[in-house]
Amino acid sequence: xxHWFEGRTLVIATKHQKESVLAPLFENELGxxxxxxxxxxxxxxxxxxxxxxxESDPLETARRKCQLALDHTGADLVLxxxxxxxPHPQMVFAHADDELLLFRDTRNHxxxxxxCLSTETNFNAREIFTRAELMEFATAAGxxxxxxxxxxxxxxxxxxxxxxxxxxxxxxIFENMKARQASVYVETDxxxxxxxxxxxxxxxxxxxxxxxxxxCCPICEFPGFGMTALREGLPCELCQxxxxxxxxxxYECVHxxxxxxxxxxxxxxxxxxxxxxxxNP
Length: 281
Known about the structure:
The protein is α+β, with helices and mostly antiparallel strands. Strand 1 (9-13), helix 1 (19-30) and strand 2 form a beta-alpha-beta unit. The chain is built from five helices and twelve strands. 25% of the residues lie in helices and 27% in strands. The termini are far apart. It has a five-stranded mixed sheet with strand order 2-1-3-4-5, sandwiched between helices. It is flat and about 65 Å long.
């Protein structure tokens, strides 16, 4: 597999220091040499704080980041990352970090991506009225290891201060802003270089992506032979009713379109009645 990429240059489309975890992994696993282009403005495609709205879904945004880097550098091997934060789709009251990594090789017409959904995130925001509330919020967010953002109001970006990572600066900025109004709006800074929890999730996603890149099609040996879908329907061991648990995983080659179905991928042929909508509605 390494012969596809070894000795080539991989451009990492980031301005938030994601190369600190991505470059060592990709250089070691694929034999590439990584670099980050100067003055690549990925924030033009959207910011977490909302002053630039993301217009596309995460995958399309990652593709646009890749294209920005390719146009900027003339490279033909590129890696981009896109993160999303919000309520977990299944776990009530839990926040989630949804990281997507996209790898493109325009020379060989290869595109491979993967995602990782994690509850290991400090993503949060709150209107703050007092110094005590601010300190409580900051401590819960893992400050100062994890940086914070302060702005006058939720949707007011003039006067916003990002990347705050010291108690002295945090309290001074809060007092100065609070002197002019009743409250301020505080957010966790979700940019990768200011958020170690997010950086850890990006690293985990990168390892998954590398596993997928290194998985070659059994027919044509093209890289990126990975799971594209799952089929639900693992039967309940008590009533035999199909459940929402996966019965099989579907793997597909992006090159020759070979499809493989892996039945009972979790090593079990029946699901516990606990997860059956019929037995446990």
